[in-house]
Amino acid sequence: MPLGLGKLKDSLKGEVSNGTSVQPENVAPVAAAANGNGESSNNEALPSYAVNDPLPEPIDGPTAEALSAAFSSLRLSDNPAAFPDTDTCLAHLKLLSTFHVLKEDIGYTDGLFNLWDAKCELLDNRDESLAKMREKRWVLYIARAVERFETWWLNVLCNREVSKRLEGQEMRANVLKFMEFTKRGRVQKWSTSMLPPIGMIVFL
User: Fold this and answer.
1) Buried b (16+ CB within 10 A) or exposed e, 1-26
2) How far apart (Å, rounded) are the C-alpha atoms in residues 76 and 85?
3) What angle do CA 25, 28, 29 make, to 5 degrees?
4) Distance between CA atoms of residues 45 and 119, nearest Å
């Protein structure tokens, strides 16, 4: 063996003094704690270094199918009570969830209203700029939805009423039919055929 390699080999193996193995100072603590069989000197198992740790146990709860079935069996009265019941609250939460999904779809549609995410990629505050870009898409969508809602209101709902639409010159404090128009209306019973697209229901 070449000169010097033997000493290096002995230094890596450590020296034996009085039957006790002495580890060199340059050996890592984990390596020093393990013997040749890969077991700890104090009989404690080393921590696992598996690449894929086992997934946590799933949390018990209703499935998506069960939730959908619950919504399909809601009992909503034509004459709602003064205080909402459980089914009414569930229907309201479902509607709010629908609005949230609509907002996410609009905000994350790249290129909508000619607003492209690529314009934010080169900026220093990329994440903040992307968030503002998505919010801007939603604001533009709502602004245009207001115009669509007005068109729908005039051409659909107003045609179902027997009363005459008030003109601008009639909207004064001394005009009786303007001051009392809220008392002369009748309760409208909604049907599915009367409902506008989801983007307009936000304003109802």
Assistant:
1) eeeeeeeeeeeeeeeeeeeeeeeeee
2) 9
3) 95
4) 53
The CA distance from 145 to 197, in Å, is 10
Neighbours of 34 (CB within 10 A): 14
36: exposed, middle or buried (Cβ count in 10 Å: 0-12, 13-18, 19+): exposed
CA distance 101 to 105: 6
Closest C-alpha to 41, from 26, 17, 21: 21
β-sheet bridge partners, residue 20:
17
Give 73's DSSP letter. T
Residue of higher predicted confidence among 175 and 148: 148
Does the model's pTM come out above 0.85? Answer: no
Q: What proportion of the chain, given as a percentage, has pLDDT over 90? A: 20
pLDDT tens per residue, range 104-120: 999 999 999 999 999 89
Question: In a 10 Å sphere around its CB, with 0-12 CB exposed, 13-18 middle and 19+ buried, how is residue 93 labelled?
Answer: exposed
Type of residue numbered 137: R
196 Cβ contact partners less than 8 Å away, ≥ 6 residues apart? 148, 149, 152, 156, 204
